[in-house]
Amino acid sequence: MTDTTPKKTTLSIKKRPEAQSTSGSDKSEIPFVKKSGARAHQRARIAAEEKKKAPIEEREVSSADISRATRHRGATDAEIFDVFAPCPRGLETVLAAELEAIGLEHVTRGRAGCHFKGNWRAIQTANLQSRLATRILVQLAHRPVRTEADITALAYDTEWERWFGPEMTLRVDTSAIASPMKSLQYCNLLTKDGICDRIRSREGARPSIDTVRPDARVHLFLSETTATMYLDTSGESLFKRGWRFDKGEAPIRENLAAGLLALAGWQPNKPLLDPFCGSGTILIEAAWIALNIPPGINRPFGFERLRHHHMSAWQDIRKEATAAIKKEPPAPLFGSDISEAAIEAARQNLQRAGLTEATINFTVADACEVIAPCPEGMIITNPPYGQRMASESPSMTLWASQLKKSFGGWSAFVISDDTALPSQMRLKPRRRTPVFNGALDCRLYEFEMVNESYRR
Q: Which among 317, 374, 349 is positioned nearest to 122, based on CA atoms?
């Protein structure tokens, strides 16, 4: 987004019409009062019509006028924002490495996410290119709070009108860690009231609330002593790439799948196999990485709905990213599952992801019978585990026997919430990496397959 300084030295403004008496029957004479819903919109229209009739006078343009006009044109290339990119817990280190590889600056790890600083172009690039982040949140306000009233005041004091107005819809979400506030739902309501009162005081009406497809999203985060308010620039969560309609049974999210690939250290020149591929999430993420396809190339973003969105600048970022897409992966990708329905879902997802059938070799097969398709390679998989598949746990022993027999020279990375998995497989993991799959506290186990294995 760019700014230009006005060349004129005078500014034409309209006098605010004097308040009319409410004793008459004409509704146009009723002064504006704070009300919500359709009545507020009606009074805003009346106020706007009165302003149009007001006489125009000229005065010198002050520095405050220029500053105010500049603020309301949107972000400049020189303006730097504090940004937070949340992610699944356990992916903070690889997310930090990814953000730095994208070209973002001042990246630091936090709890379940990373902080960085950047201008508006950097924020758009992070939305387009990050495979691991869940959202890109721009910090607009931060202040110590002691009571619920402090939250309302913080919301009211923030310049929301710079980003959205009464013509748009709004959603507010609240989360907290160690906050003394008794009700997060009440804090959420107070934040909405503060935002809406602020916009109504500036523009004569308040935005409507839409929890399904809002134009603007605000996130309130409460700590033990502070409140932070973020503008969500992503809209829908970033793991929603736009291609996965057939999810199969208990799939992992796309950003976690990309995170497993990063934690395992997989590189596109390494053959990859997922013998419990389900609907193909891990392998399709791997294919997009190998082909350098931006994860957000096929989806809209929340910042596109905000005020002062510069479509041409955004299209330039997209074109630059699209030009770097490769034609084919350098190493083969293999996926198998015992379920025919799962493989059919994987093939449908492959097509929706814009990939050819030759990109990933999907087959129906029992994991306990799959043999190594290459002399060396890497297995990354999300096998059945947890309550949904407790009855199938003995198959892990059979599968491990097949790994020892047919996959010498391969490394295997297996995510599971079952701490007894290595014992069931009779393999000693080289590494256990804590990672969360939703609310499940899991481990990503690394097994190095050699002829004698790592038996206990």
A: 317
**Residue range 99-108: average pLDDT?**
97
Long-range CB contacts for residues 53-57, cutoff 8 Å, separation at least 24: 53/17, 54/14, 54/15, 54/16, 54/17, 55/14, 55/15, 56/12, 56/13, 56/14, 57/12, 57/13, 57/15
Taking a C-beta distance cutoff of 8 angstroms, is the pair 205, 166 a contact?
yes
**Type of residue at 36:** S
Q: Is 129 left (phi over 0), alpha (psi -120 to 50) or beta?
A: alpha
Partners of 142 in the β-ladder: 228
Q: How far is CA 59 from CA 10, 54, 73, in A?
A: 6, 16, 22
Cα dihedral 256, 262, 265, 271 sign: positive
- For the chain, the first-to-last Cα distance in angstroms comes to 60
For the stretch 5-40, pLDDT in tens is: 444 444 444 444 444 433 343 333 333 333 444 554
Nearest to 431 by CA among 412, 417, 450: 412
